[in-house]
Amino acid sequence: MTTKNGKPFPGFPTVSFTPVPDVFFDELLPKLSNCELRVILYAIRRIYGWRKAEDWISLGQFISGQANRDGTVLDNGCGLSRQGVINGLREAVEHGYMVKRVVCGRCKNEIADRVTAIRTVGGPGKQQQRELEVVPKDCPFCQNPLQGSRALQQHYRLRLVNDVDYYQSTTLTTTSQRRRLVPVNDVDSQQTIQTITNNNKNVVVVQLSKIGVRQEDAESWAKLYPPARIFEVITASEVATENRPGWIRKALEEGWQFDTETDRRKSEQSERAAAIVASLQRDNGGGDHHD
After folding, report:
1. What is the predicted pLDDT for the residue at 184?
2. CB-based contact 116:132 (threshold 8 Å)
3. Closest by alpha carbon to 57, among 124, 197, 136, 157?
4. Is there a contact between 100 and 94 (Cβ–Cβ < 8 Å)?
5. What are the Cα distances from residue 228, in Å, to 51, 190, 221?
6. What CA–CA distance (Å, rounded) separates 126 from 128?
């Protein structure tokens, strides 16, 4: 069987995998349309495949893929037409699998005060009623007119557990650095849980940074793994004699079980030390010298 370029498929590699949540296969797979399936798989690859907890993906990237600044192609999108991508993303958002964000094309601020309205679309004889999002005439931040294909930009990401319900939240703001949605005046219990979670994540980041883990990696791991798991890894990493951050990365990504893993690595280090001592003794003539 050949691929689109006419060459036979060489087979799947035994390395370089993207982790996919079990719930995707167990619950969502039978329910998804073809378009919905493709856009969600693309988002999973773009986010979890790059070891991120979340990432906003533009509509154009779903359609055409992405490339490095030097032109190196990283992927080719999800293999759908523009309308197919739009249909898949609309379904994924409606079903609660993904979250949509609309930003001003000029200042990149979130246009949160948009509403859904019924509009007539299509040419003569093909007109139909469809729900469309209506935004203000001008951007409330930079006063740029919000009309035209480049005036607004659409971005999407996977919806996370206990995520903000985008369409039920009436007041949203954005952080200055990454422009991630933050709920305002939310339910007190949710605020308490979120505060505790954020505090735990901050402690994790601080502890990892003290060990020598890069700030970017520490923040990413704090989002991907529970704090208790990371503290367990930090404790177990004390057996690492060198490159402790690398040891922690492998332990997290490969899911090491530390009771047995720590004992095994301690044993390996003891054996290595014994071998070094034996080698030094041989170099010195086999140990004790007698006149």
Report:
1. 38
2. yes
3. 157
4. no
5. 19, 20, 12
6. 7
